[in-house]
């Protein structure tokens, strides 16, 4: 695939057909990292994920569900990757799909060749690191739970994409990797969590937990349709805005949605109804980063989870569900955001923060149950 250097991506991308599933969908424009993804009014425009194949439970599927065939590449820092780690945890799929956690702080991926910065793997023998402009830190070359890339010894996520024939980027996590075909199945978290929910139930410890039950499709889709643009992507639209106008639009929408969530959670246990669902996972991963990162770094300081009891207790309940807290790594979340975009935080100073995790450890005011 050839690389087209333009920061603006407006075209919606076709999904791979089954026949060409080994090839990525080609992005019309190349965006090196999320910071390059903006429109002509300075608004943040997220580039669509390019690998959109599906694991299916049918044995004759192109990517059939099998134990120990697929592997997740994730960053603890990344909310999109966090969706997949949380889904894997609550479904009880840790033994079926292994995961490798990358180093939280973006580095130059090919310093001798170009300026691209992105995810690299932890290196136990590496030297201390700085941010990509030589400031900050010094940071360790490996954080707790970071591991080397297990199959080819790649140094970066970019190298893994290249192994799959994708030299266009963007080189994002999460990746669902197929060890048998040595390729990427999907790099779209919203679709990976659907696969983990429904296609691996023969191996899951909690096959009966349905995060997208048929009777809730309409409600879940409806919640996702406003939570994604105004909250999940909304925080990025605030933080990566390149004009006051773009920021003002994003923060207004985010603030309205935050209040809508607070209101819903006063009347209803979970965001799409009284049952825990994928919509809660998608919301939680943004809320858990909100006070420590987004209010400061992305200027979403009109609201705070800690000061909104209905949302705080909702977060506590989810955080305290079996397996979930192990997926929340605030040290790596903060290290990533504050240190990976020197254009936003030149010296990579990490604010001390309010210790939001300690708040999550406190008892919530709801009854205990996943259902
Ligand atoms: N649509 C993707 C978005 C994933 C994404 O943007 N991940 C970010 C990390 S939070 C990333 O890897 N960015 C790499 C870059 O911007 O170069 C999904 O939901 O899976």
From TrEMBL:
<dbReference type="InterPro" id="IPR040079">
    <property type="entry name" value="Glutathione_S-Trfase"/>
</dbReference>
<feature type="binding site">
    <location>
        <position position="119"/>
    </location>
    <ligand>
        <name>glutathione</name>
    </ligand>
</feature>
<dbReference type="GO" id="GO:0004364">
    <property type="term" value="F:glutathione transferase activity"/>
</dbReference>
<feature type="active site" description="Nucleophile">
    <location>
        <position position="78"/>
    </location>
</feature>
<dbReference type="InterPro" id="IPR004045">
    <property type="entry name" value="Glutathione_S-Trfase_N"/>
</dbReference>
<feature type="binding site">
    <location>
        <begin position="170"/>
        <end position="173"/>
    </location>
    <ligand>
        <name>glutathione</name>
    </ligand>
</feature>
<dbReference type="GO" id="GO:0005737">
    <property type="term" value="C:cytoplasm"/>
</dbReference>
<feature type="domain" description="GST C-terminal">
    <location>
        <begin position="213"/>
        <end position="337"/>
    </location>
</feature>
<protein>
    <recommendedName>
        <fullName>GST C-terminal domain-containing protein</fullName>
    </recommendedName>
</protein>
<feature type="active site" description="Proton donor/acceptor">
    <location>
        <position position="236"/>
    </location>
</feature>
<feature type="region of interest" description="Disordered">
    <location>
        <begin position="1"/>
        <end position="22"/>
    </location>
</feature>
<feature type="site" description="Lowers pKa of active site Cys">
    <location>
        <position position="337"/>
    </location>
</feature>
<dbReference type="Pfam" id="PF13410">
    <property type="entry name" value="GST_C_2"/>
</dbReference>
<dbReference type="InterPro" id="IPR010987">
    <property type="entry name" value="Glutathione-S-Trfase_C-like"/>
</dbReference>
<dbReference type="InterPro" id="IPR047047">
    <property type="entry name" value="GST_Omega-like_C"/>
</dbReference>
<feature type="binding site">
    <location>
        <begin position="188"/>
        <end position="189"/>
    </location>
    <ligand>
        <name>glutathione</name>
    </ligand>
</feature>
<dbReference type="InterPro" id="IPR036282">
    <property type="entry name" value="Glutathione-S-Trfase_C_sf"/>
</dbReference>
<feature type="site" description="Lowers pKa of active site Cys">
    <location>
        <position position="294"/>
    </location>
</feature>
<dbReference type="InterPro" id="IPR036249">
    <property type="entry name" value="Thioredoxin-like_sf"/>
</dbReference>
<dbReference type="InterPro" id="IPR016639">
    <property type="entry name" value="GST_Omega/GSH"/>
</dbReference>
<dbReference type="Pfam" id="PF13409">
    <property type="entry name" value="GST_N_2"/>
</dbReference>
């Amino acid at each position: 695939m050839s690389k087209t250097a333009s920061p603006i991506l407006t075209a919606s991308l076709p999904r791979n057909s089954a026949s060409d599933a080994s090839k990525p969908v080609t992005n019309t424009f190349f965006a090196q990292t999320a910071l390059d993804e903006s429109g002509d009014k300075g608004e943040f425009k997220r580039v669509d994920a390019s690998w959109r194949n599906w694991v299916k439970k049918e044995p004759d599927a192109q990517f059939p569900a099998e134990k120990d065939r697929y592997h997740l590449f994730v960053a603890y820092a990344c909310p999109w990757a966090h969706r997949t780690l949380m889904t894997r945890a609550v479904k009880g799929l840790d033994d079926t799909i292994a995961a490798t956690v990358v180093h939280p702080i973006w580095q130059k991926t090919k310093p001798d060749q170009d300026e691209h910065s992105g995810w690299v793997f932890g290196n136990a023998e590496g030297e201390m690191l700085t941010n990509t402009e030589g400031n900050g830190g010094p940071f360790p070359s490996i954080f707790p739970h970071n591991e080397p890339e297990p199959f080819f010894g790649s140094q970066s996520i970019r190298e893994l994409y290249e192994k799959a024939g994708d030299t266009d980027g963007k080189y994002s996590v999460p990746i669902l990797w197929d060890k048998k075909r040595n390729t990427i199945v999907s790099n779209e978290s919203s679709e990976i969590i659907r696969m983990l929910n429904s296609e691996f139930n023969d191996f899951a410890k909690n096959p009966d937990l349905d995060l997208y039950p048929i009777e809730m499709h309409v409600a879940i889709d409806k919640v996702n349709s406003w939570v994604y643009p105004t909250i999940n992507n909304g925080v990025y639209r605030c933080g990566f805005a390149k004009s006051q106008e773009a920021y003002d639009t994003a923060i207004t929408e985010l603030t309205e949605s935050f209040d809508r969530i607070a209101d819903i959670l006063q009347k209803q246990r979970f965001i799409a109804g009284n049952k825990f669902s994928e919509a809660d996972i998608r919301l939680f991963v943004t809320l858990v980063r909100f006070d420590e990162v987004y209010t400061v770094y992305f200027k979403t300081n009109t609201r705070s989870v800690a000061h909104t009891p209905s949302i705080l207790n909702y977060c506590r309940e989810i955080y305290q569900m079996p397996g979930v807290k192990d997926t929340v790594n605030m040290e790596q979340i903060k290290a990533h955001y504050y240190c990976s975009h020197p254009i936003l935080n030149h010296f990579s100073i990490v604010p001390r923060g309010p210790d939001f995790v300690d708040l999550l450890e406190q008892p919530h005011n709801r009854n205990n149950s996943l259902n």
